[in-house]
Design a protein that fits this description.
CATH class of the largest domain: Mainly Beta
CATH topology of the largest domain: Immunoglobulin-like
Number of strands: 23
Shape: globular
Radius of gyration: 20 Å
CATH superfamily of the largest domain: Cupredoxins -  blue copper proteins
Oligomer: single chain
Strand content: 35-45%
Bound molecules: copper (II) ion
Structural class: mainly beta
Largest sheet: 8 strands, mixed
Distance between the termini: 40 Å
CATH architecture of the largest domain: Sandwich
Length: 311
């Protein structure tokens, strides 16, 4: 099962061997921290949009409605599909979806299992930065030895009219042209409002990262080394994998990492750029951070520092 904390899986209806999905591009209000809301754009009421799960060789029809105040499209980022379904009308024979209209993207999933994304590709400088993006994951039908499988979309937003060094409750607009983001998200929320990744000791854990945005994010995991298992949805052969504890997730990239849960605790998983783990320049840990939390871990027992750890 693929878990996308705080983001739902997109339902579908199957008829005549075709999977029918529906996405509505629309303005959404996203609570990124308790009582701090941003006026964003997203799909089906949320940003990032719902996660699309498909299998190799699936025939899909994804109907995209446009309730935005300008034309839009969806680009199926990383998928090898026909030119007219790729969603870049400025270049390709693929249509603009005008306000109030819809388009059916119809294609066959020809890529192997892997992590991909979808995002708007009209007025990209605005629409991507307003939040029009989501995950499209091609699931391995063979199943795997993965016990816990997470997806995290990285994000960065510039909220306007909020004084730096403060976090007043309110609803704020996004400046999509800004190069100076003040809020950094995992699946559309900032720490400590991100959701922990719950695991069990001895689990084999996969975390899939995606990034559509202005920034590049070196994501660091504490307490473990991980295998870099896939790049842009392409599996890396086991003998070619490197062990790391920080992976740079650049804009447009997806990376899958794998590790064995062999060090019980509550371990940070966060972007290593200091500005990206702050909420609007305030001091406490915030932004693009979450925790890997082992079930049953007794934090209080480990807080007794008078016990010599070497015994
Ligand atoms: Cu970052």
């Amino acid at each position: 099962m693929i878990i996308t904390p705080t983001i739902p899986i997109l339902p579908y209806v199957k008829r005549n061997n075709i999977k029918y999905f529906k996405l509505i591009a629309q303005p959404v209000v996203r609570e990124i921290l308790p009582k701090i809301y941003m006026n964003a754009w997203g799909y089906n009421g949320i940003t990032p949009g719902p996660t699309i799960l498909v299998y190799p060789n699936d025939l899909v029809c994804i109907r995209v409605y446009n309730l935005l105040p300008q034309p839009t499209s969806i680009h199926w980022h990383g998928l090898d599909i026909p030119n007219n379904m790729d969603g870049v009308p400025a270049v390709e024979p693929s249509p603009y979806i005008q306000t109030g209209c819809y388009f059916d993207y119809k294609f066959k999933i020809t890529n192997p299992p892997g992590t991909h994304m979808y995002h708007a590709h009209v007025h990209t400088v605005v629409q991507d930065m307003m939040g029009l993006a989501g995950a499209l994951i091609i699931v391995d039908p063979e199943g795997t030895d993965i016990d816990r499988d997470f997806f995290i979309m990285l994000g960065a937003f510039t909220l306007t009219d909020i004084a730096p060094f403060t976090l007043p409750a309110g609803t704020y607009d996004i400046d999509p042209f800004s190069m100076d983001a003040n809020f950094f998200t995992m699946n559309g929320r900032c720490f400590p409002y991100t959701e922990d990744l719950l695991i069990n000791e001895n689990d084999i854990v996969r975390i899939r990262f995606g990034n559509i945005g202005m920034g590049n994010h070196p994501i660091h995991l504490h307490g473990h080394q991980f295998e870099v298992a896939a790049a842009d949805g392409n599996l890396i052969a086991r003998q070619n994998r490197i062990l790391k504890n920080t992976i740079l997730v650049a804009s447009g990239e997806t990376w899958d990492i794998l590790f064995k849960a062999d060090n019980p605790g509550i371990w940070p998983l966060h972007c290593h750029l200091p500005h990206h783990v702050s909420n609007n320049k305030t001091l406490p840990l915030g932004g693009m951070a979450t925790a890997i939390r082992y079930r049953g871990f007794d934090k209080e027992k480990y807080q007794k520092f008078d016990i010599c750890p070497y015994q």
